[in-house]
Design goal:
alpha/beta, five-stranded mixed sheet, 12 helices
């Protein structure tokens, strides 16, 4: 499905309800599988969370006396379920995914789990899915090291299963740590269940805990999904206002850094009764925006498109994990922004956009089976008509995205 977008929105004042954070939901789904007396509210309706739920509830079918679990494009599910099935005693699964998922590395996590005593082997290429996991009780070693600059999902996967290890876990992170907010999110959720944790220097210790008290846990709405509305407000007229629910001022999500970043782009964020109100209150006069997104790389696509639309440059760093996402996001951004007339360069961990006032109209944006490519480029319709290819990919994290854009005044037609 290809969608053509354009917008003549003026004096916008609207409200949007966004479902729970995919990051929090998937962590809590795994914890609920380990501790079934947890009840969850406001969970994400994303494809990724649905895949995670189905994988935890039941297997799809049996292959060679094993249960085949296909998580499609869901990277978080691949990492978290690798750890979960490793400690799911008596269950043997083959964990697989889409062709792109089979290109995404899993070796760092697998080796860490094997060091702890897990039985995991590769079905095809060494270091990549699909993998065969024979679940068992891990009772011996409780100390392991892992590179600190890998995806934080590897680290969180280990932390989430740690309470169920007989001796808990002592995890040493070697080098400079990436995405600390996501690690802290995992630890905070464990703490909410009264599981003892410590994070000092580069060492994280999780105490064992076989049972937790019954508890209702409410998921905060997704800040990554909010990012597209920050972009829309930034690209709109002064006075534009969008209210989003439900958000916390002391959020666990790293992408809440949007509040400070978009201040530089003329957007004021006000917290009101568990909601945020985004207001365009000024025209940005920045020549170029400088951001280190080491703690929030998922909002890089949104930010660079906002800067293009505002006619300012940007230099974004801390982006090395983007190369192993749904696509190589840095290369995808370079290709698509160049189509629009941008002067952009990328390295293995950074992106530089030169300010330009001219944007090519009615460009077809390829989405590379990546939900964030589709949603990040959509706000640019406030500047020029734009075509989003394979627009249905947004269901991975935000199924209601196109309807929400229509409800605030975007004109969207299928072509």
């Amino acid at each position: 499905m290809n969608l053509q977008l354009h917008s003549a929105i003026s004096n916008l004042k609207s409200a949007i309800s966004i479902t729970g954070s995919k990051s929090e939901t998937n962590r809590l789904l795994l914890l609920q599988a380990l501790f079934p007396n947890i009840t969850l509210e406001n969970t994400s309706n994303s494809d990724d969370s649905e895949v995670m739920t189905k994988a935890l509830e039941n297997s799809q079918f049996t292959i060679h006396n094993s249960q085949l679990v296909d998580i499609h494009h869901a990277g978080t599910a691949m990492r978290f379920l690798t750890a979960y099935f490793a400690v799911n005693e008596g269950r043997e699964v083959v964990l697989t995914g889409s062709p792109r998922m089979k290109e995404r590395p899993i070796k760092v996590l697998v080796e860490a789990l094997q060091h702890l005593g897990a039985q995991i082997s590769y079905e095809n290429e060494d270091g990549f899915p699909p993998i065969r996991i024979k679940g068992q009780k891990i009772t011996n070693n409780n100390k392991v090291s892992i590179p600190a600059n890998v995806s934080s999902q590897y680290i969180s996967a280990l932390l989430l299963i740690a309470p169920k290890l007989q001796n808990g876990l002592e995890l040493t992170l070697v080098g400079e740590i990436t995405s600390i907010p996501y690690i802290k999110m995992t630890l905070a959720l464990l703490n909410d269940l009264h599981i003892q944790t410590s994070f000092e220097g580069n060492v994280i210790i999780i105490s064992p805990k076989q049972e937790v008290d019954s508890k209702v846990m409410t998921v905060e709405s997704d800040w990554s999904s909010a990012s597209y509305f920050f972009s829309i407000v930034a690209l709109s007229e002064i006075g534009t206002e969008i209210k989003l629910s439900s958000y916390k001022q002391n959020s666990l999500q790293g992408d809440s850094s949007l509040v400070e970043i978009y201040k530089n782009l003329g957007v004021e964020t006000v917290f009101e009764n568990n909601c945020i109100v985004l207001r365009k209150h000024a025209i940005s006069n920045l020549p170029s925006l400088l951001c280190n997104l080491n703690s929030s790389p998922d909002i890089a696509q949104t930010i660079v498109v906002t800067c293009l639309g505002l006619g300012i440059g940007c230099h974004l760093t801390g982006l090395h994990t983007l190369k192993i996402k749904e696509t190589d996001r840095l290369e995808a951004l370079r290709i698509e922004l160049t189509k629009l007339g941008a002067n952009i360069s990328v390295t293995n961990d950074s992106l530089t956009l030169v300010a330009t006032k001219e944007i090519n109209s009615s460009v077809k944006i390829a989405t590379y089976n990546d939900h964030r490519m589709a949603m990040a480029f959509a706000p640019l319709a406030l500047r020029v008509p734009i075509i989003i290819e394979n627009a249905e990919v947004v269901s991975k994290s935000y199924p209601d995205f196109w309807e929400d854009l229509k409800n605030i005044g975007f004109t969207i037609s299928e072509i």
